[in-house]
Amino acid sequence: MEIEETTGRIAEQLEHLKRYTATPGKGCTRLPFTKEARQAVEFLRKQMEEVGLCVHEDEAGNIIGIMEGEDPGQPCVMMGSHFDSVINGGDYDGIAGIICALEVARRLREKGLRRKRNFAVVGFCDEEGMRFGNGYFGSGAIMGNRDAEYCRKFKDTDGVSIYEAMQGYGLDPEKIGNAKWPDGSIGCFLETHIEQGPVLDSEGTEIGLVDCIVGIQRYMVTVHGRSDHAGTTPMDMRLDAVDAAAKVIGKIAGWAREKADGTVATVGYINVLPGGVNIVAESCQFTVDIRSRNNDNINDIANRIRKALEWETKIMGGSFEMESKLSILPVNLDQDILGIMEESCRKHGYSSRYLPSGAGHDSLEIGQVIPTAMLFVPSKDGRSHCPEEFTKYSQLAKAAVVAGDLVEKLLTDEADRRG
Fold first, then answer.
1. 294 — phi, psi (to 5°)?
2. In this structure, what are the phi and psi dihedrals at residue 47, rounded to the nearest 5 degrees?
3. 260 — pLDDT class (breaks 50, 70, 90)
4. DSSP run (H or E) holding 99
5. What are the two backbone dihedrals, phi and then psi, of residue 203, each rounded to the nearest 5 degrees?
6. Cα–Cα distance for residue pair 312/174, rounded to 1 Å
7. Res. 2: pLDDT tops 90
8. Which is deepest, 14, 250, 339, 407, by most CB within 10 Å?
9. Largest Cα–Cα distance in the chain?
10. Residue 131 carries which DSSP code?
11. Measured on CA atoms in the order 347, 348, 352, 357, is the torsion positive or negative?
12. What average pLDDT does the segment 243-247 reach?
């Protein structure tokens, strides 16, 4: 009966949250500091209050609900995920993890257990980095890694900075430092998430225990050339930005394949100016996203890109910039916490396996410092970041049960658990 009730509540809340998208009928588009983000936050606030949490929105736009324990001064147990999405994304990425955390809180309240420390449920703002090209904004803020200058630096494609977007959203970016949690106040962090890959679904495995999250580096590259007439400018007299950029772009995927070990590299965005069919390009801008569980692989590919750009622009007679948008190290997740959840899976008869995460998550930012663990649930056909993304609500309910077992143990354990 417990799993059926949990499944029903998860379904009801996620079905409601599907409404908050800028692209109805074309997937979820819930970018940070937008009307859709505000609608989702207010819905989550109401759900947290109904569960009995003390709720506030912090200076970074995170929504936080606290269930107090007997000694609030002890390091808390934190659980959550993000409420933003990519453009035309899915309805479960991130947001399902917040709903699972709410179910854990509901279970704690209903059981009336004596809790030694606080339990915090968090909905993080701007994990994806889709709007401003960075990522992990809210989770970075609670770790003290975001400031007003950071907010001024990053802008969206319309030239709006994070700083300006926050102001329009009702936040004061000058106060973002107040979002930082004091050192030692978070004992451990737990995140439930859809896998976004095909492994669990293809195997029929119910729960994934994530033992490692890959590191990520992201860059915005701009190659500068010169605009000229496409018909009258001889090939050997052109400063063609696209020609130089394309020669580098064409090598990036091959460099990642050479590394193997799960290393990937992606050019996902290209913009050419002036953008005319009969004009030699003055500039070519493109993004690079490099990921691996081995940070040396990431660094090597980034260095190869930089050297190749130097060579090609020198031959052309142009120049380039390679701006870092994100750099975060791989992280190994907490084996003790994962072991507790593995035992919970056995107790409930849920099949499970260990696997790495090729996608970054708020756990990647927080896990650099805090003992962290993740649970994955299957994604149908491995699809994600698209409207076809789908996970059964019953599978999310099973993850909530396993996470609940862990949280109960951590909150009622007499020891001062810091991981």
1. -110, 110
2. -65, -40
3. confident
4. helix 95-111
5. -85, -15
6. 41
7. no
8. 407
9. 80
10. T
11. negative
12. 98
Burial of residue 236, with CB atoms counted within 10 A of its CB: 0-12 exposed, 13-18 middle, 19 or more buried: exposed
Instruction: Tell me whether residue 94 is exposed, middle or buried, using C-beta atoms within 10 angstroms of its C-beta: 0 to 12, 13 to 18, 19 or more.
Output: buried
The rounded distance, in Å, linking the Cα atoms of 278 and 281 is 9
Query: Which whole number is the average pLDDT over 88-93?
Result: 97
Run of H or E residues at 339: helix 335-348
pLDDT single digits (tens) 125-162: 999 999 998 889 999 999 999 999 999 999 998 999 99
Q: Is 154 left (phi over 0), alpha (psi -120 to 50) or beta?
A: beta
What CA–CA distances, in Å, run from 137 to 130, 162, 255?
A: 11, 10, 29
**pLDDT of res. 259:** 94
- Among positive and negative, which fits the CA dihedral 109, 110, 111, 112? positive
pLDDT tens, residue by residue, 344-362: 999 999 999 999 998 889 9
- pTM for the full model? 0.86
pLDDT for 412 equals: 87
Strands 207-213 and 331-332: antiparallel
Question: Half-sphere exposure of residue 206, counting CA atoms within 13 Å on the CB side?
Answer: 19
Q: Residue 401: which of 382, 375, 379, 378 has the closest Cα?
A: 375
State the average pLDDT for the chain: 95
* pLDDT score of 42 more than 50: yes
DSSP assignment string, 245-264: HHHHHHHHHHHHHHH-TT-E
The CA–CA distances, whole Å, from 280 to 40, 225, 231, 381 equal: 45, 9, 9, 42
Q: Are 197 and 367 in contact (CB under 8 A)?
A: no
Token readout for 372 is 């962290």
Please give the Cα distance from 386 to 291 (Å, whole number): 20
Tens digits of residue pLDDT in 220-234:
999 999 999 999 999
